[in-house]
Structures are given as C-alpha cells and as structure tokens.
Design goal:
Chain lengths: ~110, ~120
C-alpha cells in the first residue's frame, strides 16, 4: 500500500527553524512526481503552501520553503511564528493509486 | 474571488445514499479538473475522486470504487459526488477542491467542507 510518511509532530520555539520530512517510494516521489505541501489551521480547510516541490503561491511568506531529493521531500519553516501552529500535509501523485496521495500529516507546535 | 461551496452532507444510515454538491464561482469552472477529498474526524486527508475538465477522465480511490460516482455540470458550474452503500468508515468532512495543474494534481482552492456522518 502506497504511503507518504511524515513525523506525527514537530515543535520549536518562536524564531526557530523546523523541518518536516515526507518519505515516499518508487510509485510516487521516487518516480519523479512533484511534491506539494498544505497547511491546515484548526477547524479550517487546507491551504496550498508549496507546489511543484519548491514554489510558493502568491501570498505565502518566504519563511516557508520546500525541497525534494530521491524518494523524500522536506518543508522548512524558518522564523517560526505562533500563527504557524497547524497541521501540515505533503502530497504527490501515486501511479499505483492513479491519483493523488496525501502524507500522514504533521502537527507543528510553537512552544 | 474563487469560491467553492459544498452542500448535501448530513446523517445517513449504513447502506444509505447521499449526494454532495459543490457550487463553483469566480473562475472558469469548465477549464479545471476537480477533486473530492475527505477527512475523517481527527484524521488526515484522503483523496476520494477526480474528474477532468470535460469529464473525459474519472478516477476513484479503491476505498470508494463501485460505490461513489463523481460528475460535473459545466453549464451550472457544479461538481457532484453520488455516494451509495455508505459505511461507517465513510464518515468524514468532504472537501471539493480545484486542481491547479492536472499534470501534478496540486490543489489550489478548497471549499469549506460538508460533514457526512454514517451511523445507525
């Protein structure tokens, strides 16, 4: 079964840098498909944060950055702020599913 | 302004049916592929189904294949999800979502979601 694995939680103090990993396989990230990242604030719909591995939609602060290598991808948040406390999901295309696959999700806590 | 507004959620008994609708505005609906994505209470995001702009290509997650049917009416700027033979595990918030790029399946706009509860 295809899965994109993320750490359940990460935390950091205000101003610090945190990273969230997203590990896939040869049917998704490893096959060369792009990775996207979404932020979901409590009680709201997800919001696109990064698309195409490292591109930010307009309005997304440059504190958020994405990268991809091999079968994994990462989201970095620098200068962590209280408003960044949310759930974050990676997403890629999976050839076994013939559709998009979401990561397991990571809760970011600002200490 | 892009808006996606879902409706049709509610409480239904196991084995029952429900039809979700999504009204789109603020963009040329007929030019975009669309997704349904769901989120069970306290759980992560799960892709349910996708439909291309002209309905030529339709895909389903294995968990709903044979029970759910996605469709769209470009003249009415609307997306639908017919859900039959509902199970307890289908309980979730269902989001209508616009595909930003059909080549990479990224989603750039989401509706607010509609809650479907399957329970006796």
């Amino acid at each position: 079964q295809s899965v994109l694995t993320q750490p359940p939680s990460v935390s950091g103090a205000p101003g610090q840098r945190v990273t969230i990993s997203c590990t896939g396989s040869s049917s998704n990230i490893g096959a060369g498909y792009d990775v996207h990242w979404y932020q979901q604030l409590p009680g709201t719909a997800p919001k696109l944060l990064i698309y195409g591995n490292s591109n930010r939609p307009s309005g997304v602060p440059d504190r958020f950055s994405g990268s991809k290598s091999g079968t994994s991808a990462s989201l970095a948040i620098t200068g962590l702020q209280a408003e960044d406390e949310a759930d974050y999901y990676c997403q890629s295309y999976d050839s076994s599913l013939s559709g998009p696959l979401f990561g397991t999700g990571t809760k970011v806590t600002v200490l | 302004e892009v808006q996606l507004v879902e409706s049709g959620g509610g409480l239904v008994k196991p084995g029952g049916s429900l039809r979700l609708s999504c009204a789109a505005s603020g963009f040329t609906f007929s030019s975009y592929s669309m997704n349904w994505v769901r989120q069970a209470p306290g759980k992560g995001l799960e892709w349910v189904s996708s439909i291309s702009s002209s309905s030529s290509y339709i895909y389903y997650a294995d968990s709903v294949k044979g029970r759910f049917t996605i469709s769209r009416d470009n003249a009415k700027n609307s997306l639908y999800l017919q859900m039959n033979s509902l199970r307890a595990e289908d309980t979730a918030v269902y989001y209508c979502a616009r595909v930003r790029d059909p080549d990479d399946y990224s989603v750039d706009y989401w509706g607010q979601g509609t809650l479907v509860t399957v329970s006796s």
